[in-house]
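thread from #wetlab-drylab

HS: before we spend reagent money on co-crystallization trials with magnesium ion, can we at least see a predicted complex? here's what I'd submit
DV: go for it
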Amino acid sequence: MGMEDVSGRPRMKPGTSRSPLGWARRNLFSGVGNTVLTLVSVYILWMVIPPLLDFTIFSAVWTGTTREACLVPDAGACWPFVWANIDQFIYGRYPPSEIWRVNIVFALGIATIVPMLIPAAPAKRFNLIFLLVVYPLIALVLLAGDRPGLPPVPTSEWGGLLVTLVVAVTGIVVSLPLGIVLALGRRSSMPAIRMLSIVFIEFWRGVPLITVLFMASVMLPLFLPEGLNPDNLLRCLVGVALFSSAYMAEVVRGGLQAIPAGQYEAARAVGLGYWQAMIGVVLPQALRHVIPGIVNTFIGLFKDTTLVLIVGIFDLLGQVRAQLSDPNWTVPQGALTGYIFAALVFWVFCFGMSQYSNFMERRLNTGHER
Amino acid sequence: MSADNAAPKKMSVSDKTMIEMSGVHKWFGDFHVLKDINLTVKEGERIVIAGPSGSGKSTLIRCINHLEPHDEGRIVIDGIELTEDLKRIDEVRREVGMVFQQFNLFPHMTVLENCTLAPLWVRKMPEADARDLAMKFLERVRIPEQAGKYPGQLSGGQQQRVAIARALCMNPKIMLFDEPTSALDPEMIKEVLDVMVELAREGMTMLCVTHEMGFAREVANRVVFMDEGEIIEEAPPEEFFSAPKNARTKEFLAQILAH
Ligand SMILES: Nc1ncnc2c1ncn2[C@@H]1O[C@H](COP(=O)(O)OP(=O)(O)OP(=O)(O)O)[C@@H](O)[C@H]1O
Ligand SMILES: [Mg+2]
């Protein structure tokens, strides 16, 4: 793709020793400045890592069924608190007898998304249609219920990781296509479409997400006619999706700008229409350029889902906080334990996305192309 | 390029008008790029367009497939008048192939995919047919063995030949060339010109912006000389090179031939 390897990964010269000592000398102690940096880094790590490991692992309480288990002197993390509340963390206040429905949605989601992410897996087009059309419908029916055999579960009872994933996945799935359309609109030769796109993008980019959520949840019902009162979670989903679409649009526009006009012209000259030229020629190249930016936006979005707490929706973090006030589990180290657990879950998802983006970039950059 | 002197002009020209431009004007903002262009091209004719940089040569041929819209006058391609009507523009583009100075191959597709894209998506051809068609034209431009490679793996001359094959895959009636050899290293110019000469021999209607005067001598029916957005002179190559009428033409020829 004409991009140099800027990963900065040191490349071994042929013949240099691969021993750890040789590596350390070359990379960590190659000069005075480098040596000082290395020593400072080691000092910082020494200050942070051992206490963290001690708290989360060595001094942690791993077993027990009540808070008393964690009330020992000098105890670290109180993991029984997490075990005892794991259902709330994952499902919120979803009725325990109906949790199987959420589990099916999770399992089906994994079974749909994983093959989508594996380049070699077959039937990508079918997979994509299933993911974008069929799966959301199935998920909606199962989660919300109110069908024969499926008692209704109002969204006010959804919570924890379930809500985090619902908000994040909806945001991701809506923001990419909508962002692409907005980016194309902003570069359109038709003034009306261009203006609309610019106004839309700049409006949503100019407002903090908290304001968007607050408006969606509190203000919107005041303007809407009586009786028309969309679900609180749904309003937040729309708000998050539109908000992240605006960001996505600007990332995609950056990619579009990197593609020479000649590509579009050549596509039109062989007879392709506007959308064919975009879908077949311009976008595949443009999106490739901005994979890091796209994934960055996804990661930002994933973490921003925690803001739904402001309008009374309990995502994973909100649910962890809620359980902290559970009198059965008031222990001094409870808050820290809960936050570490939440952080770990968020980290796993965000790190996964980041690693996947690296993998795709490397794959797309191998061999061929200018 | 060595002229096969045998019968350079034996290529047939019919009476049918393929391109008709009359009173065409175009502005970029305040800048008047094309001034009252009148040009008629018959089926099978080969026109070479020459002129100094910035004289509007590219703009002229880009008007023919509506990559640039014209502001005044009429452009009629094979009986279809170019207006803002999108359907007609599509129709015209299906009949007109274009080759660019910078090749403009699609770097994310293989050579074969570059060639089959339009037949598949525009002509809705079955995949096997599109592939056969593409291979036929890749053979014509003498690089069938590169079909599986990506454009970035080819030399400039090879890329330009792929670009020609890609345009031919839509079976165009007219081919437009915008300085097809000026981005090439000297040793690759010939392989591209050879393909173009062959195409001319087969009777393709061609409009070619180029400063390859050898090519003009060998295949052109007429050389059109442009300066500052106007057609200054239009003549068969022998006449154009040996007895240019206009002072600006003479000056231009003196400059090019000095190289
Ligand atoms: N999109 C555009 N907007 C504004 N001016 C333009 C545009 N495209 C071309 N021009 C101007 O129009 C004039 C004619 O351009 P054109 O590309 O047709 O010239 P040319 O004869 O092909 O020159 P060259 O030999 O350098 O390719 C030039 O002065 C150029 O700067
Ligand atoms: Mg030009």
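DV: Strands of chain B lie at 17-28, 31-42, 46-50, 72-77, 80-81, 96-99, 174-178, 205-209, 222-227, 230-235.
HS: ok that's useful, forwarding to the group
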